[in-house]
């Protein structure tokens, strides 16, 4: 299969993330601002905003076969290494344990290492992909 040998690199992932923020979270931030007079994305008191963000990153790929909105637009998706369907366990390991908690514990160093792994590894897998047994591939 073409998508088995066509891993998605750093820039396409980066732009997919920007699209997610522009399409999903910017409008929600504006709406919440008008309702509460606070900008939830930047305010420490809105822990629920981070919770909503991670629920989106975990749940939507499970319901939408490896896509979030930004990835769908960019023509990339998250897949398991063994080709099986993504599970809640995969996505929690990928998004919450590997991206959020590990980055928090390492003061962001793991995120920087992940960027370099995605840039320089042939399979374009970051720490979060290695831990969760996932990869991001082009679907065209």
Describe what this molecule looks like in 3D.
The longest helix has 27 residues, at about 10-35. The chain has helices at about 10-35, 45-65, 70-75, 90-105, 110-120, 125-130; strands at about 75-80, 135-140. The chain is mainly alpha-helical and about 140 residues long. The N and C termini lie close together (about 10 Å). It has one domain. The protein is about 60% helix and about 5% strand.
Low-confidence stretches: none
**Number of separate helices:** 6
Strand content: 5-15%
Please give the domain count.
1
Helix and strand sequence? HHHEHHHE
> How many angstroms separate the termini?
11 Å
Most strands sheet: 2 strands, antiparallel
Helix content range:
55-70%
SS class: mainly alpha
**Integer-rounded radius of gyration:** 15 Å
How many strands?
2
Order of the strands making up the biggest sheet: 1-2
Subcellular location: Cell membrane
Main location: membrane
Transmembrane segments: 12-36, 51-70, 91-120
Keywords: Cell membrane, Membrane, Transmembrane, Transmembrane helix
């Amino acid at each position: 299969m073409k998508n088995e040998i066509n891993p998605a690199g750093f820039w396409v992932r980066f732009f997919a993330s920007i699209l997610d923020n522009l399409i999903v979270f910017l409008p929600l931030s504006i709406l919440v601002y008008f309702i509460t007079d606070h900008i939830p994305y930047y305010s420490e008191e809105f822990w629920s905003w981070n919770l909503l963000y991670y629920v989106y990153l975990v749940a939507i790929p499970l319901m939408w076969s490896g896509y979030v909105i930004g990835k769908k637009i960019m023509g990339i998706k998250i897949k398991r290494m063994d080709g099986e369907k993504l599970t809640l366990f995969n996505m929690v390991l990928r998004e919450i344990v590997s991206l959020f908690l590990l980055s928090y514990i390492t003061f962001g160093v793991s995120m920087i290492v992940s960027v370099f792994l995605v840039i320089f590894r042939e399979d374009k897998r970051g720490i979060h992909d290695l831990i969760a047994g996932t990869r991001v591939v082009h679907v065209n």
